[in-house]
Amino acid sequence: MRVVAFDDVVQKVRAMCGKAACLLPPDVLEALKKGSCTESSDLGKAFFRQYLENASIAENENMPLCQDTGFAVYFVEMGSDVKLDSGTIEEALNEGTRLGYKDFYLRKSIVADPLFDRKNTTTNTPCILHLQSVPGDEIKITLAPKGGGSENMSALKMLKPSEGRDGVVKFVVDSVVNAGGNPCPPTVIGVGIGGTMEHAAYLAKKALLRPVGTPSADPRYAELEAEILEKVNASGVGPQGLGGSVTSLSCHIEYFPCHLASLPVAVNLNCHAARHAEVKI
Fold first, then answer.
1. Which of 10, 103, 16 is nearest to 278 (CA)?
2. N or C of the chain: less Cβ packing under 10 Å?
3. 87 and 207 within one domain
């Protein structure tokens, strides 16, 4: 059994918070450069130039890409042959998040009670943790900060199985088009199909971790991703919802077995600054 120091996890998570907020990943940068070449409208092209300039300034000056530095959402694969020397992985993530958002001067956006007093926790915690046990003695941590603008445009529908492929396409395309400029398009579309209500939503968010533009390994779902992306981009919503030919950069689908009476479908969007960072310990 490999033992990892609690503080080692805390410090690596702290650094990830700053990296994710200020450094746009290479796959996202490449997608934005490609989008700038394919966008048809002059206004849309101008937005793409601003996105790329913003990314450059954020990297060079170590400044956040966006004022909304998001809810800290972690996907953790924890090996069955590794443990911490003290505390829990959730405690380490929360402490690393607290330090990261403080030390890198990131906006704290989390309220303790969602409905009544809505008082800010002042630490950007608690975080969201999706924990998976895997073989081995490593801990893989992926941080995907989630801003409110894109998260608010999430959608979930329990389709009838008879609605099938066409029903899935219509629901996803309608969800993205109806979101308009709210999620700061061009977006990355995450789609979860199958499981149960809550698992479909998890799959949709997990789908956003895939490198932008990477198709599903299943050719049937890869074809479905391409069709959805084509129809979304034909809608004319465009960058920032002000018209154009690139409403979304990519569509990623994750799927899971489901009950024979169900067909859950969830949509989760990333804005054009699809932030994420990863570390292995």
1. 16
2. N
3. no
What does pTM read for this prediction? 0.95
- Give the Cα separation of 27 and 36 in Å (integer): 14
Q: How far apart are CA 264 and CA 200, in angstroms?
A: 6
H runs (alpha helix) in the chain: 6-22, 26-38, 42-61, 89-103, 148-151, 164-179, 197-207, 219-233
Q: Residue 171: which of 268, 271, 252, 267 has the closest Cα?
A: 267
DSSP codes joined into one string, 218-243: SHHHHHHHHHHHHHHHTT---GGGSS
Distance CA 64, CA 58 (A): 6
Alpha-carbon torsion 85, 132, 27, 98, what sign? negative
pLDDT digits (tens, 9 = 90+) for 238-259: 999 999 999 999 999 999 999 9
Q: Which amino acid is residue 196, in one-letter code?
A: T
Same domain, 100 and 189: no
Q: How far apart are CA 71 and CA 21, in angstroms?
A: 11
> Per residue in 124-160, pLDDT tens?
999 999 999 999 999 999 999 999 999 999 999 999 9
Last residue of a domain, one of 123, 145, 167: 145
Please give the Cα distance from 85 to 207 (Å, whole number).
32
Residues 222 and 268 in one domain: yes
d(CA 270, CA 30): 16
